[in-house]
Design brief:
This protein has 547 residues and is an all-alpha fold. The protein is built from 21 helices and no strands. It is a multi-pass membrane protein.
Length: 547
């Protein structure tokens, strides 16, 4: 009995170490990619000049539609592949994992071609009356031909707990995309004095350029590690015989829920995109240009920045799925419960201070990225969106947890309940609160979904709420002090230096260093970081000379 207990404890520790290591890679790749995806907006906005808000609104509308089509094209296959590969790897059936990847490629390529054709030739059906969207959707359709194969290969690596290829390819993809965007925007807007719609279309075409570069990086990694994969296949049990048709059924059965849940945030954004203007027209006599500006503020500008912190949750979610799948395959309920608890604590550990810190520096941060256009309203929306990001990040994590334990249908049902709630409260909240209404409706909808999922997880497996509450108190207290420090730096900095773009950058950087430094110090000094992130934090504490 003692030996079995030691083995279970060892597996739990190894799972936590894998989760932390995987999260580190995925977080790094995701964060750097998100930062690149947000920082480009600074020169981009300068070059677009007076057309910036209109151009950014067009860009955001195009990307919302593209994101939905992309999720349909990928069809949830990468996450499903990661989950099923981890499942068969846990059974030492690596040969079946390879066949899963091969069958998944067939599906990914087929759906990519079909969805890209629908988006390209049917672009006029999705514009909502804005014909400027047509060339943007044409540009984005090319990316859908490439990204399914790239995403599928990332899922294959993740199923083997190899997160580095995914993280590095993600960073290279974003780097190439941003480089192409900036080069074309500068040439069209500043050198050629061209049309802003053409510049936006080229900026969206950058998605295909980035995807091609990301796929090449993955190809290099696969080629270098092919010997390792072949060795695993040779030493497999080879006890299971799974027909090709069954593999396809497994992929599709796992993938469909990933489509709905993975598209959750995008679906809510599309609801905002197609309902905001009609509701506002009923609320008052507003011009389309003004409503486009408002949409850019809450639906694009703020969203682009908060996705940096939400990417922390996304990285964690991607890491948790294959680990939970392995524990579920072994039928280890205690391990599942422990991993659920660890996942929530890791989420709180990074998300709460990030969201509060971003809210504290909302005004100078908004000026750094978007200048002084509608700065007061933009800063208020960004601050509100920072708090909302906690709920969005939590949804990303809990939906992944449900998928990891094969509760896909239940997770989809709970998401649909949240979507109905979003629809119900959307009209009155937008009518009364204007640009804040869609954000409030999104928060309410996702909060309902998160509550239902967490309640279900607790009933089935048990979540150590006492452990979470005990650690949460320390996290929340340190995060609040971090917020206060950052806020004081902003107030003092703006009083002394003003609110120019460069001075706002300095103020934001100083606030982030001081506030973030305090949080890191208290987490390491209190040993809370060791409890949540594992024993590796002791080494970091020694290097920083923290006792």
């Amino acid at each position: 009995m003692s030996a079995r207990s030691d083995q279970t404890e060892s597996q739990s520790v190894n799972a936590q170490e894998q989760m932390v290591a995987g999260s580190a890679w995925m977080t790094a790749g995701s964060i750097f990619s998100r930062i690149l995806g947000a920082v480009y907006i600074i020169p981009w906005s300068i070059w677009f000049g007076s057309f910036f808000l209109q151009g950014n609104a067009l860009y955001g509308k195009g990307y919302n539609i593209y994101s939905f089509f992309l999720i349909a094209a990928i069809a949830g296959v990468p996450s499903a592949i990661a989950k099923q590969v981890a499942h068969y790897n846990a059974l030492n059936e690596y040969g079946i994992s390879v066949r899963l990847y091969q069958r998944g490629l067939v599906i990914a390529v087929g759906t990519g071609v079909a969805i890209a054709a629908l988006m390209y030739f049917g672009a006029g059906l999705f514009t909502g009356g804005d014909d400027n969207l047509i060339p943007v959707l044409h540009s984005l359709a090319w990316a859908i031909l490439i990204i399914p194969t790239m995403s599928l290969t990332r899922g294959y690596f993740q199923g083997f707990q190899q997160m580095a290829p995914s993280a590095i390819s993600q960073f290279v993809e974003q780097l190439a995309r941003v480089a192409y965007m900036l080069i074309t925007a500068f040439l069209i807007m500043k050198v050629l004095k061209g049309d802003w719609v053409t510049a936006v279309a080229q900026s969206t075409l950058a998605a295909a350029v980035g995807a091609l570069c990301g796929l090449l990086i993955l190809g290099v990694y696969y080629w270098r590690r092919r010997g390792h994969f072949q060795a695993l296949v040779r030493h497999s049990n080879n006890a299971l015989v799974v027909p090709a048709n069954q593999l396809y059924r497994e992929i599709v059965a796992q993938a469909v829920p990933f489509i709905v849940l993975g598209a959750g945030i995008t679906i809510f954004q599309l609801i905002d995109q197609y309902t905001f203007a009609p509701i506002m027209h009923l609320a008052g006599n507003y011009s389309d240009t003004y409503l486009n500006d408002l949409f850019a503020l809450f639906g694009v500008n703020a969203n682009k920045i908060i996705m940096i912190t939400i990417s922390l949750a996304s990285a964690l979610a991607i890491t948790v799925v294959p680990l939970l799948s392995e524990a579920y395959t072994r039928g280890n309920k205690r391990e599942i419960s422990g991993q659920l608890t660890n996942a929530f604590l890791m989420f709180e550990f990074v998300m709460i201070p990030s969201a509060l810190g971003m809210s504290a520096v909302a005004r100078p941060l908004n000026i750094v990225f978007y200048g002084h256009a509608q700065e007061a309203l933009g800063a208020s929306i960004l601050a509100f969106s920072s708090y909302l990001s906690i709920i969005l990040g939590l949804y990303t994590v809990v939906s992944a947890l449900m998928q990891g334990i094969s509760q896909n249908r239940r997770a989809v049902k709970y998401f649909l309940v949240g979507t109905v709630v979003k629809f119900v409260v959307q009209w009155p909240l937008v009518y009364v609160f204007g640009a804040f209404g869609p954000l409030m409706a999104t928060g309410v909808g996702f909060l309902v979904t998160c509550y239902l999922i967490i309640h279900s997880l607790n009933v089935q497996f048990g979540i150590y709420y006492v452990t979470i509450a005990k650690q949460s108190n320390g996290i929340l207290l340190s995060a609040i002090v971090t917020f206060v420090i950052a806020r004081l730096v902003v107030w003092g900095g703006e009083a002394l230096l003003g609110d120019g773009r460069m001075t706002s950058f300095v103020i934001t950087a100083v606030a982030a260093v001081l506030g973030g430094g305090f949080y890191v110090y208290t987490m390491l000094h209190s040993r809370l970081a060791d409890t949540i992130m594992g024993p590796r934090m002791a080494g970091l504490r020694r290097r920083l000379h923290i006792r």
